[in-house]
Amino acid sequence: MAMQNDLRSSEREALLFHSEGRPGKIEIIASKPMATQRDLSLAYSPGVAVPVRAIAEDPALAYEYTIKGNLVAVITNGTAILGLGNLGALASKPVMEGKAVLFKRFADVDAIDLELDTEDPDAFINSVALMEPSFGGINLEDIKAPECFIIEQALRERMNIPVFHDDQHGTAVIMAAGLINALHLTGRAMKDVKMVVNGAGAAAIACTALAKSIGIPGDQVILCDSKGVIYRGRTDGINQWKSAHAAETDARTLADAMRGADVFLGLSVEGAVSAEMVESMAPRPIIFALANPNPEILPETVKAIRPDAIIATGRSDYANQINNVLGFPYIFRGALDVRATTVNEEMKVAAAHAIAELARQRVPEEVAAAYGGKGSTFGPDYIIPAPFDPRLIETVPIAVARAAMASGVARRPITDETAYRSQLRARLNPTTAVLASAYEEARSHPKRLIFTEAEEETVLRAAIAFREEGYGVPVLIGHADRVREGLDRLGCDAAEFEIHNARVSPLIPEMVARLYTRLQRKGFLHRDCLRLVNQDRNVFGALLLDMGHGDAMITGTTRHFRQSLDQVRLVLDPAEGHLPFGVHVLVGRSSTVFVADTTVNERPTASELADIAQQTATIARRMGHAPRVAFLSYSNFGNPPGEWLETSREAVILLDGRGVDFEFEGEMSPDVALNSTLKRHYPFSRLTGPANVLIMPGLQSANISAKLLKELGSGAVLGPFLVGMEKPVQIAAMTSTASDLLTMAVLAGAGVVC
Ligand SMILES: NC(=O)C1=CN([C@@H]2O[C@H](COP(=O)(O)OP(=O)(O)OC[C@H]3O[C@@H](n4cnc5c(N)ncnc54)[C@H](OP(=O)(O)O)[C@@H]3O)[C@@H](O)[C@H]2O)C=CC1
Ligand SMILES: CC(=O)C(=O)O
Ligand SMILES: [Mg+2]
Predict the structure, then answer these.
(1) What is the Cα–Cα distance from 512 to 196, expressed in whole angstroms?
(2) Structural fold of domain 581-721
(3) Start and end of every Malic enzyme N-terminal domain (predicted)?
(4) Domain segments of the chain as ranges
């Protein structure tokens, strides 16, 4: 695109993220095999005629024989895209694809985006109403007020599936959850609260209505729009939705309204609130500045004037993110699961209370592990759960489903809540929450990350993102001029980066001395060490790490794994009592499998296999999983017999003796390890479920399997991660993309995999 050179690197990354691989963020995949002639004749003509006739006779069977019951349409006309304004239907597509991805990621709801090219409410309403047969629910998005009210109302009346305008009700539910908790923390009763809402559009009107319906007295709420206070009798710029909330007041400006107010709720535009306005509020004010992407006032400005304030924004980079992403996936999950005809007030209030209560609960241990070990405790900086909190999927849909049943809109009530809860839990993979929390952890404890191959554009892009996204300081190794040129090409100011040139660095004498002390009795002369330091970026990088100039190191994109490892090992040792080895992490939709040793030890001994199992189990646990270890083979418990089975068997016996605190079993084939049906043939097996840690008998099978899965598999494959070194070093695959490198850097920095 023509403007590429004017973009900041984070903006360029955002464009690359959307264009790399398949353009966009979603694809459709078949949920049934389509491999044989028989599959085709069942999926299509003639087999497909059977469900067609069945549905024609009984429409409810569409939920049994098609995707309808799990499919939501995200529909917009692009008239109020986030806070960016009316940029049209086509331009809104990235946001709508994004919402579809969030539906899938957080609640396993399949969603498809539809951008309608019209600003005429009737045309919009007619188009959407005709789509009822296709979908289980309709999520309206980013349609401006007041048309959004007309559209939603008409569609709710005409359609017999849930119709939900996310910017109105999704936002209101999350705002209400945050408000309930902020009032609780400041010891206020709803009936005493004076509230000011700035903005009188889609989000603001719905939030005001919900705030009143949960107990804030109507005559204590003042609404403002771009022209000031909406007071009784005002005629300028008014519509029926605004006048329904017109206040009996002398206040005419936002500043008048805010004097003495307890709560400020902003759903307007960046910078609408001044420091003076905040100063004039009641003690312990509650300030929700929710305009996106930039809030009405920045949290740091509020804190400087009113340290006693509770502040929330719509963004993920401050504490207390109040954003509808916490609501719409789970509200639809619950509504779809009971086949609700609508999302009513009771369901919204139930969701708000469930979310609020989650933040007040003590974070259980397994969830704390998924948060990267850092607990979140209810308080002014934690009034609302983070979007990746794995408890949301178990609690919010249940609350919504219960409310739907109690209010008579559920067509298929839940009969066994315990079974429903486990079904919900199984929809998500805890690893994804851990990855998200590792990124948070990295932001709150920034590290110095050594990137040894900084002349490579992929590496530089990862290093730039590492810095710009706040994970820490990239320490770049390379010819300074070439690295600077690369930074310049990518639109960065090279002066802001730390670059080390291995030929001229002032650290060289100390490095050579250290290396010589270490290698002099291993056949290396002093001048050999000087040459290594000058010419080998892995040796130089590892020495920087060893001397404390960085917290972790990442390399591998220009050299084979073994060569990089041998160079690093000239400088660094394994951690005491640890065996260095490699782990690939296969992240599927609802499960994760750890495979080891995929990179280092060609024919591990029984004792080495046992060590690898123990260390991999620790990583699995760190990533939120109870480890179930299988020692893999072509054979199952002695059948067929073979020459090479002994090491795996001995490893099992060794672990028996070590009294470890995780499940393990072997030797067994991968299908027996992973498939519960086959496992029934071995009732004595000690694994209580499918294995999630696969210990391979040797490097051949391990490395081949990992690479096959990476090339042919459908889920994400992370790694190889190098485990068991005295300092965190990661050797990436030569095929790594910038985001692969960033993930490795962040996980290495956060100490999740090391
Ligand atoms: N955090 C979250 O989850 C969400 C945040 N939002 C944010 O809320 C904002 C509004 O979105 P939405 O309701 O969908 O948009 P709408 O277009 O429906 O409404 C915008 C409203 O903002 C008002 N406004 C504009 N400038 C000012 C100003 N200086 N002072 C007071 N009011 C002003 C407009 O006033 P007027 O009527 O006079 O034109 C209008 O009422 C956006 O920034 C959006 O990103 C929205 C949804 C969710
Ligand atoms: C978050 C959201 O939906 C918005 O800002 O429009
Ligand atoms: Mg929106």
Answers:
(1) 66
(2) Rossmann fold (3.40.50)
(3) 23-156
(4) 20-28+37-161, 169-318, 325-427, 439-569, 581-721
Angle at 174 between CA 170 and CA 176, to 5 degrees: 115
Mean pLDDT in residue range 298-311: 96
Q: Is 266 in the pocket of ligand 1 (CB under 6 A)?
A: no
Give the number of the atom of ligand 2 that is nearest the alpha carbon of residue 323.
1
Per-residue pLDDT tens over the stretch 428-449:
877 777 777 778 778 888 999 9
Q: Which residues surround ligand 3, an ion (CB under 5 A)?
A: 142, 167
Average pLDDT of the chain is 93
Give the pLDDT confidence of 246-276 residue by residue, as tens digits.
999 999 999 999 999 999 999 999 999 999 9
pLDDT of 374 > 50? The answer is no
Q: Is there a catalytic annotation at residue 374?
A: no
Is the CB–ligand 2 distance for residue 395 below 6 Å? no
Give the chain's radius of gyration (CA, Å). 29
Average pLDDT value for residue range 193-203? 97
Atom of ligand 1 nearest to the CA of 267: 8
Q: What is the distance in A from the centroid of ligand 2 to the CA of 92?
A: 12
How far, CA to CA in Å, does 139 sit from each of 81, 162, 256, 331, 396?
A: 14, 8, 37, 11, 18
**Distance (Å) from CA 83 to ligand 1 centroid:** 7
pLDDT tens by residue, 306-346: 999 999 999 988 889 999 999 999 999 999 999 999 999 99
- 589 has a pLDDT exceeding 80: no
Q: Around Cβ 54, how many Cβ atoms within 10 Å?
A: 14
pLDDT at 392 over 60: yes
Fold observed for domain 439-569: Rossmann fold (3.40.50)
| pLDDT cut 70: percent of the chain above it | 97
Catalytic residue, from 99, 679, 710, 727: name it. Answer: 99
Q: What local confidence, expressed as pLDDT, does residue 15 receive?
A: 93
292 annotated as belonging to a binding site for a ligand: yes
- State the pairing for strand pair 110-115/71-76: parallel
Cβ–ligand 1 contact at 226 (below 6 Å) = yes
Q: Is the CB of 442 under 6 A from ligand 1?
A: no
Nearest ligand by distance to the CA of 291: 1
Q: What is the ipTM of this complex?
A: 0.98
Asked whether residue 13 carries a pLDDT value surpassing 90, the answer given is no
Task: Tell me: is residue 114 an annotated ligand-binding position.
Answer: no
For tokens 């398949």, name the residue: 22
Distance 336 CA to ligand 1 centre (A): 29
- Going from the C-alpha of 598 to that of each of 595, 614, 695, 703, 738, the distances in angstroms are 7, 15, 9, 5, 22
Please tell me whether 85 is known to bind a ligand.
yes
Question: 325-427 belongs to which homologous superfamily?
Answer: NAD(P)-binding Rossmann-like Domain (3.40.50.720)
> Which of 225, 235, 355 most suits a substitution to test ligand 1, by most atoms within 8 Å of the C-beta?
225
- Among 226, 239, 296, say which to mutate for ligand 1: greatest number of ligand atoms within 8 Å of CB: 226
Structure tokens at 125: 């309403």
CATH 3.40.50.720 assigned to domain 169-318? The reply is yes
Q: Whole-angstrom Cα distance, residue 510 to residue 546?
A: 12
Q: Would you say the CATH fold of 325-427 matches that of 20-28+37-161?
A: yes
- For 209, the enclosing helix (H) or strand (E) is helix 202-213
Instruction: Confirm or reject CATH 3.40.50.10380 for domain 20-28+37-161, answering yes or no.
Output: yes
Q: Is the CB of 84 under 6 A from ligand 2?
A: no
Annotated binding-site residue? 619: no
Q: Is 81 annotated among the ligand-binding residues?
A: yes
Residues 6+ apart with CB under 8 A from 588: 429, 714, 715
Contact (Cβ atoms closer than 8 angstroms) between residue 697 and residue 648: yes
What pLDDT does residue 1 have? 45
Q: Is 210 labelled as part of a ligand binding site?
A: no
How many other C-beta atoms can be found within 10 angstroms of the C-beta atom of residue 342?
18
Among protein residues, the one with the nearest Cα to ligand 2's atom 4 is 82
Instruction: Supply the pLDDT for residue 389.
Output: 84
